[in-house]
Design a protein that fits this description.
The chain is mainly alpha-helical. The chain contains 9 helices and no strands. It folds into 2 domains: 102 residues, no CATH class; 73 residues, Orthogonal Bundle (434 Repressor (Amino-terminal Domain)). Helix 3 packs antiparallel against helix 4.
Length: 209
């Protein structure tokens, strides 16, 4: 996965609380929003539209682009453990900034505020209490490294991508996969949390007794 340069943030920016991989996902959302806007400009140039239709197409492209970014931010802020108040303050600031820079209508700003007032609803399985979810059985005599490798393959991640997701050095992940080092408990929990999120089910990595 190509590394994206992370811009500097102001000390009070809520994105400071996001992981490196989360911030890169936000940047990719901004790039997608930019693609949407340029696609609209291409249509305008090709069709020779009236000024009124040009404004409408640009406005709709801007709104779609803002939604693209806000959807990603909403999920990342929720996953980062923001309280409802912290989540809403962060999202309101993002909406206000986007509305001002893109000159969205006041009704569109209000629509976005209503739409992103609360964290996104996830699929029922991802919101179940852990005790209500049946863990995926661990294969008999399967080492921790083998379990991580199997789960990594199921997520279709390279070792480098997995290291980025769990925020560990690539060399550390390689040692875990090869059973040359046993992950610390906190790292094991990070693996479980990451795979649970990516696979949309509770993942438990068991240690051999």
């Amino acid at each position: 996965m190509e590394e994206l340069l992370l811009p500097g943030l102001l000390p009070n920016d809520p994105q400071n609380r996001l992981s490196k991989s989360a911030r890169q996902r936000v940047i990719r959302a901004h790039l997608e929003a930019e693609r949407i806007r340029w696609e609209a400009e291409t249509k305008i140039e090709a069709r020779r539209l009236s000024e009124e239709k040009e404004r409408h197409l640009r406005n709709q492209a801007d709104l779609k682009g803002v939604r693209t970014v806000l959807k990603v931010l909403a999920m990342e802020y929720d996953d980062a453990g923001f309280s409802l108040r912290e989540y809403w303050n962060a999202m309101k600031e993002e909406i206000e900034s986007a509305a001002n820079s893109l000159s969205l209508y006041s009704t569109q700003r209000r629509l976005l505020e209503v739409e992103f007032h609360r964290p996104p609803d996830r699929k029922p399985a991802s919101r179940q209490h852990p005790s209500a979810v049946v863990p995926v059985p661990v294969k008999a005599e399967e080492s921790v490294g083998a379990q991580i490798k199997r789960l990594r393959d199921e997520c279709q991640l390279t070792t480098e991508e997995l290291a980025e997701e769990v925020e560990l050095e690539v060399r550390s992940v390689q040692r875990h996969l090869a059973n040359k080092a046993t992950p610390y408990v906190r790292h094991l929990r990070t693996y479980q949390r990451t795979f649970s999120k990516l696979l949309n089910r509770q993942v438990v990595i068991g240690k051999l007794s």
